[in-house]
């Protein structure tokens, strides 16, 4: 059975920097007259459009560059590394490189587990630091200590959107920090937001519909319900109007704003245990998978002809050749979009910090007048 | 049963000018915070986006105006009216008005049935006439004489795309008249092409996918399989990659290019008689209905939540209030798009005539050189 073919996804797998681009480029063959096919090899005979994360990231990076050009100072991101995982080191190096390439400062601080709390608090109070990223896991997944550390990061510097207020806003579909002015957007977690940006690029979000409802009518399966990626992703997509089947080892849950999406934010409906992944796939316009492990593959036979398939695992959850015979669009990895979103979040933090500073200054001036 | 709730659609109903705009404007309510709903009336509480044909036609008319500005002379359309149907007179008047408003000449010629053949042949040979439209029906639907008259119109002046070569090209998915140069596009029938233009505007066509495959992954039900609208429409949509359920009194047929849309043009698969409209509707992303008659209504309960619903009948095939509780997008009529497409076809004929004249002149010059 498909739904028992993967292990529960640990939050460890979900760092925004932990999805990699495939080493090889993919090509898509546009429809050609029949005589073209006679010349082509059978493997090339597919109408699946393969879209690489680098292509999708370009627009986001251009948006970031534009925002950056309007700032007086170069924003600085600080990364805290408090584990010995060589993969985490590699991702830290990658984020450093991408930050610098795109005009941001990056400072990697390798600290001991004992020092992580003090180090974060100190960075919170350092006005030269604009964003903080912590490389998880620090403590074993069975411990909840990483959740405690997530709450230590200042709201104004939490580039990953992992502190409670951001998470609460996301689940409650509250999009701004400063209602009713609505000038400061709430920060969304990088990997789920990267998937949203991928779906926008692919025009699965229909911009004819009003903002906030643009997935109305779409059925989406998300395989992975981790606290850090899968569950927030299902919530985000349902808040935008989709009917989402969230699938993990402990069953299927449907996230939806109800018929006619009349509810303001999503509700979660656990499905009967007999309703499994293999029941979700044939109903889904979009299949999004993020299961860690080399052995897990989505059963391509069950995917709807012409579905859109997106992999956000660092492992390949789709059989590449098979999925191209079925899908209309296949996105094999999203890592480069995730890091573009990280930079976009950092820029947004800087903009919010400036707006807050203006508000604080206004209040101070008002206080002096009243005093 | 739904599928026996409408009568076989006569070709008479399918003149491109025979769908009207609704008299009243519709509004769409974007998603609002919950307290907004408390103030709104229950009827207004819908997330369905209603889009009027006039809005969709604007872009097409702008495209036509741009093409027109590059021509030395004003193109002339001649309409032949050989029946006493007051509705046909009204539509002829409407086409005259729209032509003139958009910078085209229009000449309505009221002729007797006995004179229609000679009149068309004479217009074919008149170099001041660029396009010909005939208002059908002239003869009773049981007679095939109207089909004979359709073949009389010169290929270079057939603004409705009803002559055999255009119809053949459409079914065979041949998009140009002059392969391999591919500079002269084949003419498509106005109402089916208008539906395509509506679907493009609504972004159901995904422009991320290659031209010709942009409906890949979409399931569409078309209710009406008349020779003039329903069947060509199903073929066009399937040729563009959709899986189409074509529904009429004599059953359901599936039009498709097969799994992975690997076939170059669609094939038609008659469905088992037990598979009816009520089986198609829950599977369909898009429901397109063109059934004549005031009594016919699509059963809204069977429509997928968030589906796109389009009416091309001059009667309202959807219960307006009910469909807005279910659909993500509702297009209540397409008449204004159809007439914009008619003008676009006329412009294309003029462009093709100019290109052909250049080719003919080249050949003549070449002939003189060789002679």
TrEMBL record, chains A, B:
<dbReference type="Pfam" id="PF02882">
    <property type="entry name" value="THF_DHG_CYH_C"/>
</dbReference>
<dbReference type="InterPro" id="IPR020631">
    <property type="entry name" value="THF_DH/CycHdrlase_NAD-bd_dom"/>
</dbReference>
<dbReference type="GO" id="GO:0005829">
    <property type="term" value="C:cytosol"/>
</dbReference>
<dbReference type="InterPro" id="IPR020630">
    <property type="entry name" value="THF_DH/CycHdrlase_cat_dom"/>
</dbReference>
<dbReference type="InterPro" id="IPR000672">
    <property type="entry name" value="THF_DH/CycHdrlase"/>
</dbReference>
<keyword id="KW-0963">Cytoplasm</keyword>
<comment type="similarity">
    <text>Belongs to the tetrahydrofolate dehydrogenase/cyclohydrolase family.</text>
</comment>
<feature type="compositionally biased region" description="Polar residues">
    <location>
        <begin position="1"/>
        <end position="18"/>
    </location>
</feature>
<dbReference type="InterPro" id="IPR035812">
    <property type="entry name" value="m-THF_DH_NAD-bd"/>
</dbReference>
<keyword id="KW-0560">Oxidoreductase</keyword>
<comment type="subunit">
    <text>Homodimer.</text>
</comment>
<protein>
    <recommendedName>
        <fullName>Methylenetetrahydrofolate dehydrogenase [NAD(+)]</fullName>
        <ecNumber>1.5.1.15</ecNumber>
    </recommendedName>
</protein>
<dbReference type="Pfam" id="PF00763">
    <property type="entry name" value="THF_DHG_CYH"/>
</dbReference>
<keyword id="KW-0554">One-carbon metabolism</keyword>
<dbReference type="GO" id="GO:0004487">
    <property type="term" value="F:methylenetetrahydrofolate dehydrogenase (NAD+) activity"/>
</dbReference>
<keyword id="KW-0539">Nucleus</keyword>
<feature type="domain" description="Tetrahydrofolate dehydrogenase/cyclohydrolase catalytic">
    <location>
        <begin position="55"/>
        <end position="160"/>
    </location>
</feature>
<comment type="function">
    <text>Catalyzes oxidation of cytoplasmic one-carbon units for purine biosynthesis.</text>
</comment>
<dbReference type="InterPro" id="IPR036291">
    <property type="entry name" value="NAD(P)-bd_dom_sf"/>
</dbReference>
<dbReference type="GO" id="GO:0005634">
    <property type="term" value="C:nucleus"/>
</dbReference>
<dbReference type="InterPro" id="IPR046346">
    <property type="entry name" value="Aminoacid_DH-like_N_sf"/>
</dbReference>
<dbReference type="GO" id="GO:0006730">
    <property type="term" value="P:one-carbon metabolic process"/>
</dbReference>
<feature type="domain" description="Tetrahydrofolate dehydrogenase/cyclohydrolase NAD(P)-binding">
    <location>
        <begin position="189"/>
        <end position="248"/>
    </location>
</feature>
<keyword id="KW-0658">Purine biosynthesis</keyword>
<dbReference type="GO" id="GO:0006164">
    <property type="term" value="P:purine nucleotide biosynthetic process"/>
</dbReference>
<dbReference type="GO" id="GO:0004488">
    <property type="term" value="F:methylenetetrahydrofolate dehydrogenase (NADP+) activity"/>
</dbReference>
<dbReference type="GO" id="GO:0009113">
    <property type="term" value="P:purine nucleobase biosynthetic process"/>
</dbReference>
<feature type="region of interest" description="Disordered">
    <location>
        <begin position="1"/>
        <end position="28"/>
    </location>
</feature>
<keyword id="KW-0520">NAD</keyword>
């Amino acid at each position: 059975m498909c739904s028992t073919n993967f292990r529960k996804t640990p939050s460890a797998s979900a760092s925004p920097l932990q999805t990699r681009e495939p080493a090889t480029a993919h090509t898509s063959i546009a429809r050609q007259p029949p005589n073209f096919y006679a010349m082509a090899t059978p493997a090339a005979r597919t109408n699946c459009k393969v879209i690489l994360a680098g292509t999708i990231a370009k627009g986001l990076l251009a948006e970031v560059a534009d925002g950056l050009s309007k700032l007086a100072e170069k924003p600085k991101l600080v990364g805290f590394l408090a584990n010995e995982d060589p993969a985490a080191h590699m991702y830290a190096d990658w984020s450093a490189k991408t930050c610098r390439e795109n005009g941001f400062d990056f400072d990697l601080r390798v600290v001991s587990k004992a020092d992580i709390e003090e180090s974060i608090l100190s960075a919170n109070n350092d006005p030269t630091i604009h964003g903080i990223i912590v490389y998880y896991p620090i403590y074993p997944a069975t411990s909840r200590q990483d959740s405690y550390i997530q709450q230590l990061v200042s709201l104004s510097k939490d580039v990953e959107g992992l502190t409670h207020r951001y998470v609460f806003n996301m689940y409650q579909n509250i999009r701004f920090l400063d209602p009713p002015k609505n000038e400061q957007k709430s920060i969304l977690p990088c990997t789920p937001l990267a998937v949203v940006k991928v779906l926008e690029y692919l025009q699965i979000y229909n911009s004819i519909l009003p903002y906030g409802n643009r997935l109305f009518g779409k059925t989406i399966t998300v395989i992975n319900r981790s606290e850090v990626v899968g569950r927030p992703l299902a919530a985000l997509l349902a808040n935008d109007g989709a009917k989402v089947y969230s699938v993990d080892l402990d069953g299927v849950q449907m996230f939806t704003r109800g018929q006619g999406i009349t509810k303001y934010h999503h509700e979660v409906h656990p499905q009967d245990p007999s309703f499994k992944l293999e029941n979700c796939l044939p109903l889904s316009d979009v299949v999004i998978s993020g299961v860690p492990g080399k052995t897990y593959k989505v059963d391509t036979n069950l995917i709807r002809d012409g579905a859109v398939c997106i992999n956000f695992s660092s492992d390949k959850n789709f059989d590449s050749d098979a999925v191209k015979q079925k899908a209309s669009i296949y996105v094999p990895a999203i890592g480069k979009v995730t890091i573009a979103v990280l930079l976009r979040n950092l820029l947004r933090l800087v903009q919010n910090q400036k707006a807050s500073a203006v508000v604080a200054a206004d209040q101070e001036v008002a206080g002096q007048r009243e005093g």
